[in-house]
Amino acid sequence: MTLKIGVIGTGAIGQEHIERLSHKLIGSRVVAVNDINEQVAKEAVKRISIEAKFYADPHKLIKATEVDAVVVTSWGPTHEEFVLASIAAGKPVFCEKPLAVTAQGCKNIVDAEIAHGKRLVQVGFMRPFDSTYRQLKQALDNGEIGQPLLVNCKHFNPEVDDSYKTDMAIVDTFIHELDVLRWLLNDDYKSARVIYPRKTSKASSHLADPQIVILETVKGIVINTEIFVNCRYGYDIQCEVIGEDGIAYLPEPNQVTFRKAANLQRGILMDWKKRFIDAYDVELQAFINNVTSGEFTQGASAWDGYAAAVAADACVKAQQTGNIEPIEMPVTPAFYAQK
Ligand code: NAI
Ligand code: ISE
After folding, report:
1. Which residues line ligand 1 (CB under 6 A)?
2. Which of 6, 43, 49, 215 is 20 to 30 Å from 179 by CA-CA measure?
């Protein structure tokens, strides 16, 4: 069976996903697209060489009989509306992160999915599908460094545009750590604090950059994450876990090392597209397989999206107050207990 997909939002990641759904993965075809910018959508269809109908109205795309499943890759604040409409239409939906920009928005989706009675939603948290994170998780689960005590992460982007604001460091960027670290450590968060170091001259007037987020987990692990979205030198994702018996590092992505011109050199990737290229393939193939098998057994659920957003809300509050803010995560409903 070939899954016929409608894509809402044909910008950067929308086009990446259309390409992989059309030419790389098994069992899917993009038949419909929507974007508030009609020209962007039509040019994407042409460039990727697919036959997909342009829908001016995203809600008509969601309801169209030719569309079996929806992929939402528009801007974050639009996600809740399109995911809720997909659930109302009884259609499976893959939504890029964040599931919604507030915890309440995610809760509305969780409630709608539970009321529907069957899982339909997968969130685009791709890091648990990344082979380097998987290696790190396996080492921790095997007890190779004993109990984790302390975690140090870096989430660096070379640059961001002017529309990127201080809270987006949490809801758009750090949200990836909020998702992947729960999975990596088998733990939940208890509190958050945000510290602002000296500001880079490369950031816009309305953006505090860099930022440091300090989380404490229920088991007492302290997680220190540096977020720096105008670092200029590359797209750099690091994670170091310090345990009772040693330290485990997230493997660096494969890059050739050079001994050349009196230098020892190794390239650093410049964007998320290349850094997580395989992980995006695997997560979207998982979505296709979830839908075609009729059971969502892989990938981030709406509850995972909600859990990350509950923590993100507390981090945004901590940005504003400068205080240590509590994170109160509700108990996982039975509906989401088994993945
Ligand atoms: P983008 O700005 O390149 O593309 C977004 C597209 O959505 C634009 O073409 C815009 O016209 C369209 N759009 C906005 N509002 C719309 C609406 N109401 N209806 C239809 N189309 C609308 O942004 P980008 O980088 O592609 O990000 C899109 C989403 O994907 C964001 O939520 C972002 O956080 C997420 N993302 C996830 C990544 C990951 O690593 N998982 C990487 C990059 C983005
Ligand atoms: C972007 O939307 C992503 O999801 C990237 O993975 C992240 O590194 C970046 O900070 C976000 O803006």
Report:
1. 8-14, 34-37, 40, 58, 73-76, 78, 96-97, 124, 126, 172, 272, 276
2. 6
